[in-house]
């Protein structure tokens, strides 16, 4: 109870100081071939908040988050209309290079996916592809990113050892560190703890709370308790539509839509 | 009720014997199949070694072909094969891996791609003589390379290309999508993803597939015969436009001579060829193990 109380206080504060939007989705529709996967999505996502996206399997929540950094482009046969503005720039505009978008918007995936390289090289990868060759800068960034992902103390003596030697939870924090190295603005997380044990999950959740001070975080989760614990706002997706989007407290304690109520109280999904 | 159950489990237990018999019979069948293959291989190797080993000597490796069996050697053939492979390896690797990357990473998944894919797979099964005829028409005659190292090397490259493409494609396809996503997610371009994530991951598969294909090129005779590679060569080539002979040609030539001694020389040549092939296959195995343990 105290946790939710604190959270709603934070939200009130956020409400008082004018909210800055990182993402503004307007009338977004998306089709996989003939399948209409996202229907008229309208969502405003605030800066330096944790926005959770919940909903049953196949509701389009993963599709939506993958659209935000245009990872969806990798899927053949996808068509979209409507717009998503990132910091008031349309991400579908040809002038907005997808490489730039993905540099500003990092992504953490469902399954930890470190490269088959050393811990160090995993983090250096992002810097190297962006043309940073200075050893000292790379070294400093590796340490800073690992600290940022609360992994430094655990791995500082073995950063040149293969990343595959880490536990699943550590690998996922490495993937977060890999994002942080590029100093992103937003971090997208697609069910980042679904492959992890409860202890590792807790660590990631604590980390998200810290990261929120500096980054805007959008997290897809099928774990409703997780959404309730860590997010400031929650969007409930169902059959490709946003049923309800509000402050997390409201979604979980007094949802406006009966379908939201049914889902969060476990009557389906 | 309890009675019925007990009878049932008794029946099942009684059946164990016959199931185990079947188990043994199947194992025996598979063992026989393996044994049969092994015996044939051993007999073949034994005959070749008995025939050829006495003829193996430093002179045999150092001498050119000769009318007199005691003076005949495989120097021209060994050097010729090395020259030919110096053409085949880079040509086939560049075109093969390049095509594989294009087909897997760039080409749209449409009817045309599927058609090309099907043709490549079919080419892998085309008899080597046909490739020889193609090489004769294009490289020997049209391009005017004559019966040179270049003409033979390009012909052999064509022969092994489909195998390399298919093997490389499989290796590239086996790269986990999650790794590519990780790379794209950090803002990498397609080429950066291919060169830094896809290729390093696929290298063991590409290398083993290619080496096995190259060892086929070393052993092939038919395309060389069709291209018109001479068998009796008493000089070393000094460039890719020179004529040459290769190991399988030399062996083929010796086996078609009436004298017994030349047959033994052929056996000695086969031993040399086998040693080369075993060495190449060992490299392939070594590469695979080295990268798998990573």
From TrEMBL, chain A:
GO terms for biological process: phosphate ion transmembrane transport. SUPFAM superfamilies: P-loop containing nucleoside triphosphate hydrolases. GO terms for molecular function: ATP binding; ATP hydrolysis activity; phosphate transmembrane transporter activity. Residues 23-264 form the ABC transporter domain. It comes from the Bacteria. InterPro entries: AAA+_ATPase (IPR003593), ABC_transporter-like_ATP-bd (IPR003439), ABC_transporter-like_CS (IPR017871), P-loop_NTPase (IPR027417), PstB-like (IPR005670). One of its GO terms (cellular component) is membrane. Keywords: ATP-binding, Nucleotide-binding, Transport. It holds the Pfam family ABC_tran. CDD domains: ABC_PstB_phosphate_transporter. PANTHER family: ABC TRANSPORTER I FAMILY MEMBER 17. This is Phosphate ABC transporter ATP-binding protein. It comes from Domibacillus mangrovi.
UniProtKB/TrEMBL annotation, chain B:
It is a multi-pass membrane protein. Pfam families: BPD_transp_1 (PF00528). Residues 78-283 form the ABC transmembrane type-1 domain. Keywords: Cell membrane, Membrane, Transmembrane, Transmembrane helix, Transport. The keyword Transmembrane helix applies. InterPro entries: MetI-like, MetI-like_sf, Phosphate_PstA. One of its GO terms (cellular component) is plasma membrane. GO terms for biological process: phosphate ion transmembrane transport. GO terms for molecular function: phosphate transmembrane transporter activity. It is found in: Cell membrane. The chain crosses the membrane at residues 28-49, 82-103, 123-143, 149-167, 224-245, 265-287. CDD domains: TM_PBP2. SUPFAM superfamilies: MetI-like (SSF161098). Belongs to the binding-protein-dependent transport system permease family. CysTW subfamily. This is Phosphate transport system permease protein PstA. The lineage of its organism: Bacteria, Bacillati, Bacillota, Bacilli, Bacillales.
